[in-house]
Amino acid sequence: MNDGVLSNVLIVVSLTLVLVGAAAVVLTRHPSKQAVVLSCYGLLLTILFVAFQAPDVALSQVAIGTAVVPLIVVLSIRKISLIRAEHTRATDQKEGK
Description:
By secondary structure, the chain is mainly alpha-helical. The protein has one domain. The chain has three helices and no strands. Helix 1 runs antiparallel to helix 2 and helix 2 runs antiparallel to helix 3 (55-95). The chain is elongated. The relative contact order is 0.10.
């Protein structure tokens, strides 16, 4: 196969996978599951950036989009659930339950 044809096929496959991954992120309802899907989506974007021959952007995507952002989302979800549980306990104590 010609090198240009192979690279075009790789780009088309990468774009298709990114499209499917984006739809999966949007359609996932539970926030903690969505963080995992978002991390997988970051890996798909990394593959796309490598296919476009942008290794510096791919490295940034791996570091930030695949690791840091999902971690921040999961930690935020945990903190919110702890705050809600504390608020529920305080409300129950106030009402005498």
